[in-house]
Amino acid sequence: MGLMRPQVLLVKTEAVYGTDPVHVDTDAQLVRNIAFTVNTTPQNRATQDVLLRPMRAPLITQRSYSLSFQSDLKGYVGALDAAKFAAYGDMLQACAFVRSVAAPAAHTYTMGDNAAGSESVAFQYEQHGLTYLLLGCRGAPVFTFTPGQVATIDWSFSGLYAKPAAAGMTTPDYDTGPGCKDVAPPICVGATLDFTPYANNPGAGDFGHIRSVVIDPRNQVIPRASFTVGTTGIGEYIVVGHGTMDDPGIAVTIEVEMPAAQAAWWDRYFTADGTTEVDRDAGDLLITVGTVAGNIHTFQLGGLVPWSMQPLDMGDGRYGFSIEFRALGTAASTSEDDLVITTS
């Protein structure tokens, strides 16, 4: 009898796309809320006959896997170097981030697409008595910061199909390996939160206390169809951009408490130009969580402009706004600097 509770998730970077890197016990990840889906495309074979019932069984054509889960934002137990990195490091590289270790004690992840330096990962998802191997996975992270709580990452990946196998479960090792996962995550309290030109203070008159920040790169992950590569018609999963063609860019959603000087606050987001409110102040957001070496996480976003704003009933007698921004990056930059993550 198979049980749902015993589950193990292993992840490893692929040296060659779609090729099994052979997982070991130290590849285990500490995650929760695993959701696993087998994607199929049934293709009916229509027939006309004297009978009303179908005469030919449908074919199951393109097949793939989808995997989602949540993990804590946490680094490494001890200082980083070229061979020691944050628990989320490999998976972030499979989400179109490029890791730089030029400064060994500080690893930088810069957004891109499938450019040189980005990777793919293979997951080995083990349920009680059954093992699924998800090859060629690329995906998308969503980062959530809430004061007084652990920051989280919600991951979603798509990967190539391989037939599952009956197998015993791996005994996971969370304590060793280059991306040691068994380290306490920092709590979002006393964190550096600098949102220029806005003040994180209701008394400042132009902004209220920030209650939450959600950063969504909005990765567009699509399958690349192929006659010659793969066994199900899907040759590769690729990240083609951030956001849609008519609405590109990273989404940053911030919930704020309404400040005292409400009129001035509105002008910060919709600057009046005569009678038409068109110009909007661009902001730069810097979030730093953690104080211990190897477990300090800095998120830097540039060129945030308001995209949508809605009144928010906070349910505790106060009210504010939920504001969604788009990150445009620094205009003078020639690289993807709209979101830069540093682990140190």
Q: How many helices in DSSP terms?
A: 2
Low-pLDDT runs: 272-280
Using the CA coordinates, give the radius of gyration: 23 Å
* Alpha carbon gap, first and last residue: 45 Å
Count of beta strands: 20
Describe the structure in your own words.
There is one protein chain. This protein has one domain. The chain starts with 6 loop residues before the first strand and ends with a strand. It has a 16-stranded antiparallel sheet that branches. By secondary structure, the protein is mainly beta. 4% of the residues lie in helices and 47% in strands. Strand 6 and strand 7 form a beta hairpin.
SSE blueprint and pairings:
Blueprint lengths: L6 E7 L18 E12 L15 E14 L16 H5 L3 E7 L2 E6 L9 E7 L2 E16 L6 E9 L4 E2 L25 E5 L13 E7 L2 E7 L8 E9 L7 E8 L4 H8 L1 E3 L2 E4 L3 E7 L7 E17 L5 E9 L11 E5 L1
Labels describing this entry:
single chain, 344 residues, mainly beta, two-stranded antiparallel sheet, 2 helices, 20 strands, 4% helix, 47% strand
Summarize the structure in short:
With 344 residues, the protein is mainly β.
